[in-house]
Design goal:
This protein has helices spanning 6-12, 16-26, and strands spanning 43-46, 50-54, 65-73, 80-91, 96-99, 104-106, 112-120, 128-134, 143-153, 159-161, 168-174, 179-181, 187-190, 195-197, 201-204, 210-219, 223-225, 232-235, 247-257, 262-264, 270-273, 279-288, 301-308, 312-317, 319-321, 328-340, 353-358, 363-367, 372-374, 386-390, 400-409, 416-424, 440-445. It is mainly beta. Strands 2, 4, 6, 7, 9, 10 and 11 form a seven-stranded mixed beta sheet that branches. It has a six-stranded mixed beta sheet with strand order 13-23-22-16-19-18, with helices on one face.
Length: 449
Amino acid sequence: MSSVSVGRVLRRGVCAGAVGALVVAGLGSGVAVAEDEPQTDQLWIQAPYDHAVTVAPEGGSAQYRSLTLGLYHDNANFTVTDGKLTVDASRLAGVAEVAWPDSCAPDAAGTVAVCDTGDVPLHSGTQLRLKVRAAAGAAVGDQGTIAYSAEATGGPDGRLVAPEHSWETSVTVGSGPDLTVTEPKPLDGAAPGSTLTVPFTVTNTGNETAHGFSVRLWATYGLDVVTRYPQCAYTGPDEGGTYSSMTYVTCDFDTDVAPGASVELPEPLRLGVKGYALHERFDYEVEPGGGVTDLDGTDNGRSWHIEAANTADFAMDGTEVSGAEGDTVTAAFRFVNHGPAWVGNVISGEPVVAIDFYLPEGTTATSVPDSCHNAWKSGDDPAVGHYACSLHAMVVPDLKVDFPFQLRIDRVVPDATGHVVAHADRYSSLDFDPDTGNNSAKVIVNPSA
């Protein structure tokens, strides 16, 4: 499978297995953002690049196949409602035809419709299912295109519009097996220490039998794949607190799946919710066996978003140092995750926390940690240095990170007090933190006796 960016994967509906693998690589990017930076938000359309319909049998009509669509947005600080997705199927003439659901209002020609999707969530999901089938007389290999546009109520200006001309689905007439798995609903409030059963049914919506199938699974750090099948190989997790800490599973089953049939795994697939679980994600994907190409690879994978009923207490520890005018002293503050949960942005790949350090009066930073940069901007006190620092994207329980700054004392100011604060990154919140009072600390140079 070719490599694609996390943003593109999440926005365009590429298979869930790729998402699981790419989130691992993508976490850790991003720059700390000041608390007073203007808030932004963006509306996105979830639509597949490609969609296959099966050729009509001789003397009969083709079967309808579901095309799943949705909207989502970026910023948890905004509520977005009244989603409107416009679907333009006018370029399917002679190739395929659409049966519109009740939530869509088609035009007089029946080829363009405005569809209500309701409230817009923060992560991708299905809000609209279209039924599409090959047109009478269409041959294998024939292609057409569906285009989309969207808007919704909400965001910083009260209205969000998806980027224009950004989403299209190429519809191709084909023949073969098409495997899909049950689409799960997001789960909130999972209890640490509990066991969950994954809704996992394999269905063949194609027109040819799949002779066996393969399965790939990815589980984030706070989940344990409890069920062990002899047909599977298991890798991970590495308990060292790195993103090799995901669990990865590959399986091969020899069960045939006939057109229209559904099969289960040999026993239910169960996940354990670990004691440090919080924002979790389980991705799974199926493919036909024997090297056969799936008719429509866009519906082979799913992602299960699991929110555990847990907390993580982020804290900052300050320091006190002394020196004479002209001296350079080391002032090291510390970030600590008191747990019990780990935290990682497994959806966006953005850092979960940003740290700002405002220098004590009369000091200049002569050396800063590699993970920090000068963040002074218009509106800051010109006499006070301002630095922003970033953390590991994976914040495990009991993580301690020191930030040693070298400060030159330009003039001695008794009790010169700087402060450091940990706050949510641009697209995150710290709603999991039960005690935000310890998210800031003082850095004092030349404290009074």
